[in-house]
Amino acid sequence: MSSGHATTGDGARRPTAAEEARTLVAGNRMAALATLSEDGSPWASLVLYAALADGTPVLCLSTLAEHGRNVTRDARASVVIGASDVTGDPLDSGRVTLAGRLEEPGDEQFDAARTAYEAVAPGSGVYGGFGDFTYYVLRVARVRWVGGYGRMDSTDPGAFHAAEPDPVASGAASAIGHLNADHADALLLMAQKLCGHPDAIEAACARIDRYGMDLHVQTPRGPADARLAFAEPANRPGDLRAATVELAMRARA
Amino acid sequence: MSSGHATTGDGARRPTAAEEARTLVAGNRMAALATLSEDGSPWASLVLYAALADGTPVLCLSTLAEHGRNVTRDARASVVIGASDVTGDPLDSGRVTLAGRLEEPGDEQFDAARTAYEAVAPGSGVYGGFGDFTYYVLRVARVRWVGGYGRMDSTDPGAFHAAEPDPVASGAASAIGHLNADHADALLLMAQKLCGHPDAIEAACARIDRYGMDLHVQTPRGPADARLAFAEPANRPGDLRAATVELAMRARA
Which CATH superfamily is domain A6-162 in? Predict the structure, then answer.
């Protein structure tokens, strides 16, 4: 899907590809950049980036670097941004590719671009936009999100720019740690009563987002993944506690 | 320089660009890959990679993914590999870009490629080289290493393949932590007696490699960076203790 609600086979709501993409862009500041060398071959490099309010990436490139010279010759470019807190199998975590053209921000966007970039690269104000350094915004034409093995989708630039980054992303890691360390019993009951795994013998929270959480469930029949939707989407990290308590109460009812 | 010993202004030996590049390739397993989309525009993606004994990257790509389809159409590709243990400013840590062509390994190289890839991706033996998955080796034509602000160099493929990854890299982080936590007095004495900063008031180890270490030194005149060469290159992590003890004794003499 490219817009609207994303649901799993059991109807539980999930972030859309556009929301996943915006969350990755908002939650990181390093990207790999692909540009075209003089002979048209691809050139990969690392860059610091910032994001405008609509998710547009902002870069600041020097013509002393090959990628900066490449862009002045051919504006076509692509960035890939991966989850910054990868533990375990890195190919089982999210990443998004944005492809389009790098253009200098117009007068109406220059201040926003510079302000956003300075926020991720303090001190860049002294060189950004001066001398050999130029600010660029990536005009996004294509968006490809991969969420790990088997989860992937493309979305269109309109849906990407309109989507909201997950507002609970900054609290997800600590919520997952707390649930797994202190509430394994409640997670197991949720798997048994709410996820269709009455024979579950163990359950762990693998992921949490504003709409719900993913459980890794162990059963005598083998492992299973389950999605549990919150009664209401969480709009800030502080909402995650009430949302998971409501799930636990529902499982005990 | 593209080969031979690298030295700093004070003559202290440092790893060459080729050695730095090989160390980065050996110490990681995730890379960003730049390939060419159907219209010739660049496409950035994330890949798992392994390395052959000479540093040649091995990839395993699926034609279900855009990068896999790109490579079957145009073999030109580039990977960028960054330090995996970045703390602080990510642009102040090392990364290397390798560019060339992705080719299927010949009969004489296939087993080595598969074995290397399976070591970083357990389970890939069941899909690697079969169905939509193909093993590739990157025939390296260009190497560009960036070591952080102000440190960068290109090297040629011959020097890259001939160089050795730093054999003490796996022990560097713990050695740095130990030196800074427990031997700040010895580091300060080294800065005062061996680095030409008699007025140093504080010194911390910023980096350690087989040839020596980099110190961040504080002086009443402002901060300074200094390079300290070991009496003999260290050939295994266990050699770092003796090498740093020798420096401390030299500083006290």
Answer: Electron Transport, Fmn-binding Protein; Chain A (2.30.110.10)
